[in-house]
UniProtKB/TrEMBL annotation:
It comes from Streptomyces phaeolivaceus. The lineage of its organism: Bacteria, Bacillati, Actinomycetota, Actinomycetes, Kitasatosporales. CDD domains: ABC_TM1139_LivF_branched. This is ABC transporter ATP-binding protein. PANTHER family: HIGH-AFFINITY BRANCHED-CHAIN AMINO ACID TRANSPORT ATP-BINDING PROTEIN LIVF (PTHR43820:SF4). Belongs to the ABC transporter superfamily.
Amino acid sequence: MKVGGAEKVQRLTVEDLSVHYGGVCAVSSIGFTVEPGESVGIIGANGAGKTSTLKALMGLVPRSSGRIRLGDRDLTGVKARDMVRHGIGYVPEGRHVFPGLSVEKNLLLGAYSRPWDKETDRQLDEIYALFPVLREMRERLAGALSGGQQQMLAIGRALMTRPRLLVLDEPSMGLSPKLVGSILDVLLRLREDGLSLLLVEQNAKLTFGATNHCVVMENGEVAMSGTSAELSHDPRVREVYLGL
């Protein structure tokens, strides 16, 4: 099963990215790449600059500096609303589904930038195969779903954009351990299908399980990076990431 645009994945390159809020530096000249088909996690303690990095990448907050490229295309000046047209799907922190619309209408909103065709129908069926509970609740209002079901809906909606890269901000927030395991299973399936992933997540088990490379942030800077397997056993990560 090929959910999203995994057959067209391209390298994401982030260079010299900085974010300031007033006189406070939240992100300081960081850089990283997500290779085609790679799954990368950004980890760190609260306030390390992780979410600000994703929001700056997506154009949701102003960048003080930085360059964003997907493949050979420079996305630095692209507005947030147009990022999806260039192949980046986004699952925001807090889900942000449309509570007054049905599950299916929420999903179809993910395909708003393309003409409706048989491919859209096929993709909707693939999302329902990935998340069977959404098929069962396709006519239910999104606001009536549980937190875990809304998270599945938010991921499904982003996949309906047929992204080359899927960006997720805290997908396990507020979920039970069982549902966190379900989200991990989905991310692993997407990774196996070759879709590139960029993940910010507080749950260390989920992050190291879902990714093959991690960037560790501290005070708005990259403190270290490496394979997820290496970092999961590094005592320095416990100090920077968990504050221990």
